[in-house]
């Protein structure tokens, strides 16, 4: 038996054994305390289906946008070692300028203000 087959068989056996052990040892005792919604130690006040402000979604989208910017700029130190680093730096500068202009626009429009 070669090593890959042995490792696959061992992984499958261990996974099945641990899953079966979990189902066998798990305690299924639901009570009203466990089934109630968690609200930071307080009793639930009102409906949980109240609409959120659109500002929460705007901040989440801005976070994702700038998180994507970091992911795009992460390989920059390796990209500067290419044959034409000026092209890389030009595109990087263009990306940073566009995102900075977008941030300034959001700031001027008041999209980052929590209180009106």
What features would you describe in this structure?
This protein has helices spanning 3-25, 32-35, 54-73, 76-79, 85-109. By secondary structure, the chain is mainly alpha-helical. It has one domain: Methane Monooxygenase Hydroxylase, Chain G, domain 1 (Up-down Bundle). The longest helix has 25 residues, at 85-109. The radius of gyration is 26 Å and the shape is flat. The termini are far apart. Core subunit of the mitochondrial membrane respiratory chain NADH dehydrogenase (Complex I) which catalyzes electron transfer from NADH through the respiratory chain, using ubiquinone as an electron acceptor. Essential for the catalytic activity of complex I. Its EC number is 7.1.1.2. It is an enzyme of class 7 (translocase). Pfam families: Oxidored_q4.
**Uncertain stretches of 5 or more adjacent residues:** none
Major sheet summary line: none
Rg over alpha carbons: 26 Å
Number of strands: 0
Q: CATH H level: which superfamily?
A: NADH:ubiquinone/plastoquinone oxidoreductase, chain 3
Helical content (DSSP H or I, runs of 4+): 55-70%
Q: What is the average of the pLDDT values? A: 82
- How much of the sequence lies in strands comes to under 5%
Instruction: Count the domains.
Output: 1
Oligomer: single chain
CATH topology: Methane Monooxygenase Hydroxylase, Chain G, domain 1
